[in-house]
Design the sequence.
C-alpha cells in the first residue's frame, strides 16, 4: 500500500485537533464488510445505515466516468473499502494519522489495496481533474466556510465526475430524538453505578468537534457555485441511532428497522420538506459540468 504523506499547510479553520480526532479513531474496531452486508450479522443501527449507504453507492457511482475515487476526511474509510471491493482505485485523505491507520487496517482486513494521504481538504495535494468520484461522509459540517472544501473537492473532480457527501449538521432532526433517548439511558446507567459526579454533563452527547448549522439551501447553493449540475440535496435516514440497554438494539430496534426498510427508502428518496427537515442527515450529490 502507498502511504504518501502530503500535508497541506493551510491552518485548520475551526480548531479541530487531529489528535482529538485520533482518540475517536483509535477506539473503533476494525471493519469487515461482510459483517455489514449480511443482514443476519447486523445487530446495530450504524451497520444498517452503512449497508443502505453502500446500496446507494452502487446505484449512484455506476454512472461515474471511470474508477478513480477519492474520499476526503476518510477516517475509517468504510465507503472506500466498499469502493475498492467494487473495483474502484481508492485514495483516502485525512488530517489525522490515527484515522489513516484505521483506514489502512480496514483495507488490510478486507484484502484490498488503497493509497493513503495525510493532508488537508482545504489544499488537496492533487492536480485538477484527477478523480472520477470525490466523496465525503461526515466532513463538511465541521467547516464554518463550506465553500472552501467543496471548491477543492470539485477542483480535483474530472468533468462528468460524481461528487457525493453525507452531511450531519447541528440542527433538530429525528437524530436529536435518538440523542435524547441515549442521554437518558446513559443517565440511568450512571445512577445504577452510583457515578454521581458530573452526572448530567456526562450523560449528554459529548462531541468535541465544531458542527455548523447551515440550512439545506446553503449547501445546495455551495454545490451550484462550485460548478456542479444535476444537484440533489435531500434528507436521509428515518430511524436514529439509539444507545439502548440490555442488547435491545439488536434484539428489537434493528429488526423493526429491517421490517420497515421500504418505508425508510421511501422517506429518503421522497425529497420532501419533511425529509429535509427531519432526516438524520443530508445526502448531497451532483455532477461536475
Sequence:
Amino acid at each position: 500500500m502507498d502511504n504518501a504523506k502530503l500535508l497541506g499547510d493551510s491552518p485548520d479553520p475551526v480548531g479541530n485537533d487531529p489528535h482529538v480526532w485520533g482518540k475517536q479513531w483509535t477506539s473503533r474496531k476494525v471493519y469487515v464488510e461482510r459483517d455489514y452486508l449480511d443482514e443476519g450479522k447486523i445487530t446495530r443501527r450504524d451497520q444498517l445505515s452503512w449497508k443502505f449507504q453502500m446500496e446507494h453507492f452502487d446505484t449512484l457511482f455506476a454512472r461515474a466516468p471511470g474508477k478513480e475515487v477519492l474520499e476526503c476526511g476518510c477516517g475509517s474509510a468504510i465507503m472506500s473499502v466498499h469502493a475498492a471491493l467494487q473495483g474502484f482505485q481508492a485514495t483516502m485523505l485525512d488530517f489525522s494519522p490515527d484515522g489513516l491507520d484505521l483506514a489502512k487496517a480496514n483495507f488490510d482486513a478486507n484484502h484490498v489495496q488503497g493509497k493513503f494521504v495525510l493532508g488537508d481538504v482545504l489544499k488537496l495535494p492533487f492536480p485538477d481533474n484527477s478523480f472520477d468520484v470525490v466523496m465525503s461522509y461526515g466532513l463538511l459540517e465541521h467547516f464554518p466556510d463550506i465553500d472552501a472544501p467543496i471548491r477543492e473537492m470539485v477542483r480535483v473532480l474530472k468533468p462528468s465526475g460524481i461528487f457525493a457527501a453525507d452531511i450531519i449538521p447541528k440542527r433538530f432532526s429525528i437524530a436529536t430524538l435518538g440523542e435524547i433517548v441515549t442521554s437518558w439511558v446513559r443517565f440511568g446507567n450512571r445512577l445504577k453505578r452510583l457515578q454521581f459526579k458530573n452526572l448530567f454533563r456526562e450523560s449528554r452527547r459529548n462531541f468535541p468537534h465544531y458542527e455548523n448549522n447551515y440550512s439545506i439551501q446553503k449547501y445546495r447553493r455551495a454545490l451550484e457555485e462550485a460548478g456542479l449540475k444535476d444537484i440533489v440535496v435531500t434528507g436521509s435516514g428515518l430511524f436514529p441511532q439509539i444507545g439502548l440497554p440490555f442488547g435491545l438494539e439488536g434484539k428489537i430496534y434493528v429488526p423493526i428497522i429491517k421490517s420497515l426498510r421500504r418505508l425508510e427508502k421511501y422517506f429518503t428518496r421522497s425529497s420532501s420538506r419533511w425529509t429535509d427537515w427531519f432526516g438524520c442527515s443530508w445526502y448531497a450529490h451532483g455532477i461536475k459540468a
